[in-house]
DNA sequence: CTGAAAGCGCTAACAC
DNA sequence: GTGTTAGCGCTTTCAG
């Protein structure tokens, strides 16, 4: 029952030749006769021979595999980035190994350890919400493996990164709210040790300042990027009697929580409170009213990350200068934030 | 710049000992002295030594890795199953390699080929919509690797499977619609070469028959499981003047399409048309009105798949009798299908 | 055009 | 308690 895997030695034996010839035949090596190649291939398919990746990659020192480490795959943004990575990877002959940190630092460390045990030739990552220090990523790099961060990137590390214009889009979307007559705009933020939330908050603040609107502490909801915390933040604003006429949420799920609370309490959106989100999750289009949000061009982000990483992998040895790319995002205007027309 | 990976030979050299001693020390082998173990470990961490997975798994013949092949990770159901698998895998010392077929047969074949090149010790899979014949899975099995299917399983293969009670839940949900006064219930089905859609359709039909309701061809929308096709199916029913008062959708996305059409045309749900979905995607709770659907207990499905697979992997050699598990699903009743209270 | 032999990094008998 | 050796399956010089 224990079916032995077929090796090139098995093929060689049956063809009265040697493993090296079989190996070369399988690779379509120029110095092998046509009939021999034919014979080898025929037998290989007949016996369902499969090259052993483990042996191959040990021998060659690389395995054409790129690792992806994301907080969770069940977010449209991350799933989209992965898709983008896969298209480029496949086209370049790479395989992809996907890992999730589930927003946990300890899981992130564990996954990282697995990955660098020679499983991958490089890594594309976006850090978990809990990640403040990056020593684990540094020891990954210390092994000499290329690393590219996207979206949530640590700014302490000298490494290739690809992000979107969080600051600019946050600024712009805040001005959009102002243009729609909002003057008391609440910020539903995320942990500010993460670049994206820090930058989005900065864009928001600067837009208020530049428009001579006060930046009020009571309007700053510090941790409101999940459905639950968004709901709660909205509830607290209301029950504390804070006057506000808009919510700029740094993430769609925080905006969702706010909308669900509003729906429950029959608070009119956008009439009483205009709301915007961030990430353009698909539910934003479905919910009533549809949610204004920021599309982060995940596919493109994935594509470019993969291209950068593969380039680094293949230029291994030459010293590679980390690059930083900032993509332009796109604001998707929907009714949740538009009061006129 | 080309940083050489540290090997056990490097450690051995620096400690004036041999690779085998280092290897044993690292594994906490009983026959190695305390001081030696200490010394080895200290140096290992100092030099950031990482065991080479490729060498290890080549040597041992297995790599404690289980592959997952799903249509797409960006579906709550699949993401949830993956999560379930990961919990069990991690607890049993296995890593997980995730692959997507993107509902394409050719991509499924390619991914499968990669996986069986000695990358994984077993596979958990759910087939793509395009998958009718399963020769590619059969040649996977021919290499002797264990395989477990979940949810979308091929019934031609003698292999372990885990599904939910599609027939029973479809029957029950159809009766629920009937109990709510619906008598002309449209079926938004999927390709019937896939077990789940075939079984859901059968449950629907039998429920109608048993309740003396006619099963009408014009109410059977053959391929309506995406948002787009669901929308279109609804539009066609209406424009063809078909009388109907409910939609039993075999998937949430088909139901979504129907609801979006209804919203556009101001068709009252559930008043004019009651709607039910299948899969309990999160948007079902958010959409207005919230969507009745079937929860498939993805976490549990993942856990059990992983347990079965790991058992098969570890009983390798002994002939293993494939098992089939059918999980009980749960109908989540929401307003989209309830006319009374 | 094909063979022989070494070695990728690791583990596990088998010595001593 | 530690060292020696062979070998997992493959590729690739170097010979012929």
Give, in order, the helices and strands of chain A: HHHHEHEHEHEEHEHEHEHEHEHEE
CATH superfamily annotation of the largest domain in chain A: Response regulator
- Counting DSSP E segments of at least 2 residues, the number of strands of chain A comes to 12
Question: For this entry, what is the oligomeric state of its chains?
Answer: homodimer
Query: Could you tell me the mean pLDDT of chain A?
Result: 94
Largest sheet geometry of chain A: 6 strands, parallel
- The spatial strand order of the largest sheet of chain A comes to 2-1-3-4-5-11
CATH class label of the largest domain in chain A: Alpha Beta
Radius of gyration of chain A: 26 Å
Biggest chain-to-chain interface with counts: A-B, 55 and 55 residues
Tell me about this structure.
Two copies of one chain form a homodimer. In chain A, helix 8 (166-179) runs parallel beside helix 9 (195-210). The radius of gyration of chain A is 26 Å and the shape is elongated. The first copy, chain A, is of the alpha/beta class. The first copy, chain A, contains 13 helices and twelve strands. Chain A has helices spanning 8-14, 19-26, 34-46, 53-60, 76-91, 105-116, 135-142, 166-179, 195-210, 227-239, 252-264, 283-286, 298-314; strands at 65-70, 95-100, 122-125, 147-150, 160-164, 185-188, 220-221, 246-249, 274-276, 293-295, 324-327, 330-332. In chain A, the strands form three sheets. In chain A, strands 2-1-3-4-5-11 form a six-stranded parallel beta sheet, with helices on both faces. Chain A folds into three domains: 8-50, no CATH class; 54-163 and 298-327, Rossmann fold, CATH 3.40.50; 166-296 and 331-337, Rossmann fold (3-Layer(aba) Sandwich), CATH 3.40.50. The interface between A and B is large, with 55 and 55 residues. Chain A binds a DNA duplex (16 and 16 nucleotides) through residues 5, 7-9, 17-21, 23-24, 27, 31-33, 36, 51-52, 54-61, 118.
């Amino acid at each position: 029952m224990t079916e032995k895997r077929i090796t090139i030695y098995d093929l060689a034996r049956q063809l009265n030749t040697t493993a090296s010839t079989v190996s070369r035949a399988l690779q379509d090596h120029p110095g092998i006769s046509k009939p021999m190649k034919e014979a080898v291939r025929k037998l290989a398919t007949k016996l369902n021979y499969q090259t052993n990746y483990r042996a191959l990659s040990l021998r060659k020192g690389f395995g054409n595999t790129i690792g992806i480490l994301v907080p969770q795959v069940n977010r449209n943004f991350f799933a989209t980035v992965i898709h983008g990575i896969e298209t480029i990877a496949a086209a370049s002959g790479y395989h992809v190994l996907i890992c999730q940190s589930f927003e946990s630092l300890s899981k992130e460390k564990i996954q990282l350890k697995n990955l660098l045990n020679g499983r991958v030739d490089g890594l594309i990552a976006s850090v978990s919400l809990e990640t403040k220090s990056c020593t684990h990523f540094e020891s990954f790099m210390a092994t000499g493996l290329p690393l590219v961060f996207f979206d949530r990137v640590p700014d302490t590390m000298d490494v290739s990164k690809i992000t979107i214009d969080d600051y600019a889009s946050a600024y712009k979307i805040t001005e959009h709210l102002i243009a729609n007559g909002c003057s008391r705009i609440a910020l539903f933020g995320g942990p500010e040790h993460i670049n994206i939330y820090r930058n989005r908050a900065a864009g928001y603040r600067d837009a208020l300042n530049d428009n001579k609107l006060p930046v009020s502490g009571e309007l700053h909801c510090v941790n409101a990027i999940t459905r639950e915390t968004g709901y709660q933040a909205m509830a607290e604003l209301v029950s504390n009697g804070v006057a506000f006429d808009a919510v700029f949420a740094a993430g769609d799920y925080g905006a969702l929580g706010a909308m669900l609370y509003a729906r429950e309490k029959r608070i009119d959106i956008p009439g009483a409170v205009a709301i915007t989100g961030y990430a353009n999750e698909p539910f934003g289009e479905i919910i009533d009213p549809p949610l204004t949000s920021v599309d982060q061009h995940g596919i493109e982000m994935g594509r470019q990350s993969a291209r950068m990483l593969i380039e680094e992998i293949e230029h291994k040895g030459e010293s590679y200068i980390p690059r930083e790319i900032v993509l332009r995002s796109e604001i998707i205007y929907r009714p949740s934030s538009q009061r006129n027309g």
